[in-house]
TrEMBL record:
<keyword id="KW-0808">Transferase</keyword>
<feature type="domain" description="N-acetyltransferase">
    <location>
        <begin position="7"/>
        <end position="169"/>
    </location>
</feature>
<dbReference type="GO" id="GO:0008999">
    <property type="term" value="F:protein-N-terminal-alanine acetyltransferase activity"/>
</dbReference>
<dbReference type="Pfam" id="PF13302">
    <property type="entry name" value="Acetyltransf_3"/>
</dbReference>
<protein>
    <recommendedName>
        <fullName>N-acetyltransferase domain-containing protein</fullName>
    </recommendedName>
</protein>
<dbReference type="InterPro" id="IPR016181">
    <property type="entry name" value="Acyl_CoA_acyltransferase"/>
</dbReference>
<keyword id="KW-0012">Acyltransferase</keyword>
<comment type="similarity">
    <text>Belongs to the acetyltransferase family. RimJ subfamily.</text>
</comment>
<dbReference type="InterPro" id="IPR051531">
    <property type="entry name" value="N-acetyltransferase"/>
</dbReference>
<dbReference type="InterPro" id="IPR000182">
    <property type="entry name" value="GNAT_dom"/>
</dbReference>
<dbReference type="GO" id="GO:0005737">
    <property type="term" value="C:cytoplasm"/>
</dbReference>
Length: 170
């Protein structure tokens, strides 16, 4: 789809199920409590099917040099009309975290969202204690817009989140 010298961004396809499931499983110890992955084969199929569009879109981040899967980004709850907005979630694949792949992938995704998908706004809601994720969105040009107490129910409890966003005009 689109690439730079470091990574390429590929729209998710149903045939990516095994690769994405394996990547998430390899990364599970780092993802908890920040990202909840499906736990059954059926829930993985549902996860994948939802991210094929039109309201949720998934993307694989692959290292350009060897096509290794290094991350996953999705835009969910895309609203058209006067809003033209979507929500981001993402994770890096172990052992490729901390090498700049996700920052490169997120920059490509933002460009794609604004030029190809014609979105106006992308929002990432991040738990305040997730310092690495906050650093990632800062590096990518997102601005902190606010704080949402008890925003999402994760791990059986309502969790506070910081609201980060980037606009097409930014």
């Amino acid at each position: 789809m689109t690439s730079n010298n470091t990574v390429s961004l590929h729209p998710l396809q149903i045939t990516d199920l095994e690769a994405l499931q394996e990547a998430a499983n390899k990364s599970q110890d780092r993802l908890v409590p920040w990202y909840s992955t499906p736990q059954t084969v059926e829930s993985w199929r549902e996860f994948m099917q939802r991210r094929l569009g039109p309201n949720d879109l998934g993307f694989l981040v692959r290292r350009t040099s060897d096509d290794t899967l290094v991350g996953f980004i999705d835009i969910t709850n895309i609203v058209r009309g006067v809003f033209q907005s979507g929500y981001l979630s993402y994770f890096s694949v172990s052992p490729h975290e901390g090498q700049g792949f996700m920052a490169s992938g997120l920059r490509l995704l933002v460009e794609h969202a604004f030029t190809e998908l014609h979105l106006h706004r992308l929002e990432a809601n991040i738990r305040p204690e997730n310092e690495k994720s906050i650093a990632l969105v800062k590096r990518t040009g997102f601005a902190r817009e606010g704080y949402s107490p008890r925003y999402l129910k994760l791990d059986g409890a309502w969790r506070d989140h910081e609201r980060w966003a980037i606009l097409a005009e930014a």
